[in-house]
From TrEMBL:
This is Aminopeptidase. It comes from Pseudomonas leptonychotis. Keywords: Aminopeptidase, Hydrolase, Protease. GO terms for molecular function: aminopeptidase activity.
Length: 348
C-alpha cells in the first residue's frame, strides 16, 4: 500500500477512536503527514553536486549502515532510512512519561495500532509541556524527553532525520539498527519487551558493524560507566518499589522518597569521583530534578537486554533463528513471557 493510502487508513482508524481523543489524534496525524511530505530520496541527495559535503558524508554512512542492517542483521529490507527529511527542529517528538506519586508503574496510553505504551508523544514541545502540566496537577510524577527518532512499525518508510545527524557516527548507526528492530518485531502492550529487544539488536548489531568495518571496539571505559550508571538507577528503583509496597503514611513515604533520591545522587557522585576520575558524564541528568517518571525509561529500555543476549547465544548467534524465537516468545501470555525472560537473565 502506498504511503499516502496508509496515512489515510491510519487517520480513519484513529478518528474512529472517540471524540475525547480527537484533538490528540489529529495532532499526530498532522505531524506524521508533515514528516512524510518532507522526505526525499537519499540517493538523489548523494548525486546532487549542490548537497552540502558534510551532509553527504553522514548520509553515505547511513546508507552503508542501512545496507548492513538487512544484509548482515536480517532486518527488514525496505525504503526506511533510504529517505531523508529535514524537519527544522532538534527533536522529532517529545515523549511525556507519567507515574503515580508512589509507584513506578507508568500511566499507559493505548492506540489502535501500537497498543498500550508507557508514554505519550507530541510533535510540539509546547503541547508536551501542557500535557505534562495537566498530569502534574492530577498529582502524577511527570518527565519529558526529546526524541530524535521513532519507528512507525513498518506502516511507512521511516526517513533518516536531521535530528539523528547530530549524533556521532556510532550512535547514528546504532539507532538505525534499533528502529529497524521495531519493524522486525513488535508486541502490543509490552513496552519493556519491545525496547529491550531493540536495544539488544542495537548493541549487538553495532558490535558486528564495528568488526566488519575494521574499527576498534566501542570505548570500553564509556560502556562500563554507562552500565554502572544504569545499575545505580535500577538499584534505586528496587529500593523505591520496596518503599511503595510498605504501609507507611503518605507524608512519611513522601519524605523517604526524597531521601532515596538524595542517596542516588550521593552514590553517583561517589562513583564518579572514585572510579571515573571525576568525569561526571551523567552530571546533567543526576543534578536535575528526579522523580518516579524520570526513572521509568531505565526499566523499559534495559530490563530484558541480558535475557535477549542469552537467547541470541542459544540460537547460535543466528539472526533469523533468533527472531523466530523472539517472535514465538512474544505470542505467549504476558506473565509467561516475563517469567521466561527472567529465567534467561543472568543471576535469576
Amino acid at each position: 500500500m502506498p504511503d499516502a493510502l496508509r496515512w489515510l487508513a491510519l487517520t480513519a482508524t484513529v478518528l474512529l477512536s472517540g471524540c475525547s481523543t480527537l484533538d490528540y489524534y489529529s495532532h499526530l496525524a498532522k505531524g506524521q503527514l508533515q514528516l512524510l511530505q518532507a522526505r526525499e530520496p537519499i540517493a538523489g541527495l548523494l548525486e546532487n553536486p549542490a548537497t552540502d559535503p558534510s551532509l553527504k558524508q553522514r548520509l553515505a554512512l547511513a546508507q552503508q549502515a542501512r545496507t548492513f542492517a538487512s544484509a548482515q542483521l536480517s532486518l527488514p529490507n525496505n525504503d526506511s532510512y533510504r529517505l531523508y527529511a529535514d524537519i527544522q527542529r532538534p527533536f522529532v517528538v517529545w515523549n511525556v512519561f507519567a507515574t503515580p506519586e508512589f509507584s513506578l508503574s507508568p500511566e499507559l496510553h493505548c492506540f489502535p495500532i501500537a497498543g498500550c505504551v508507557a508514554y505519550r508523544g507530541f510533535y510540539s514541545q509546547a503541547r508536551a509541556r501542557g500535557a505534562a502540566a495537566l498530569l502534574k496537577q492530577q498529582g502524577l510524577d511527570t518527565y519529558q524527553a526529546g526524541i530524535e527518532a521513532y519507528s512507525t512499525l513498518g506502516w511507512f518508510d521511516d526517513p533518516l532525520l536531521n535530528t539523528m545527524l547530530r549524533w556521532s557516527d556510532e550512535r547514528l548507526v546504532a539507532v538505525i539498527f534499533h528502529e529497524l528492530a521495531h519493524q522486525q518485531l513488535y508486541v502490543a502492550d509490552d513496552t519493556a519487551f519491545n525496547e529491550s529487544f531493540a536495544s539488544f539488536v542495537e548493541h549487538e548489531g553495532l558490535r558486528q558493524w564495528r568488526t566488519k568495518q575494521g574499527l576498534p571496539p566501542s570505548d570500553p571505559q564509556g560502556e562500563q560507566q554507562r552500565e554502572q550508571f544504569i545499575a545505580l538507577v535500577l538499584s534505586s528503583r528496587t529500593r523505591l518499589q520496596q518503599l511503595y509496597a510498605s504501609e507507611l503514611p503518605p507524608a512519611q513515604m513522601r519524605s523517604e522518597k526524597q531521601v532515596e533520591f538524595t542517596r542516588l545522587r550521593a552514590e553517583y557522585h561517589a562513583l564518579s569521583k572514585r572510579e571515573w576520575g571525576g568525569n561526571g558524564r551523567y552530571d546533567d541528568w543526576i543534578n536535575a530534578p528526579i522523580n518516579n517518571a524520570k526513572l521509568l525509561p531505565f526499566g523499559l529500555y534495559d530490563r530484558w537486554v541480558p535475557a535477549f543476549a542469552a537467547l541470541f547465544e542459544q540460537t547460535g548467534r543466528n539472526w533469523p533463528h533468533f527472531y523466530q524465537r523472539v517472535a514465538a516468545l512474544g505470542k505467549r501470555p504476558a506473565a509467561e513471557r516475563q517469567q521466561i525472560l527472567a529465567s534467561l537473565s543472568p543471576g535469576t
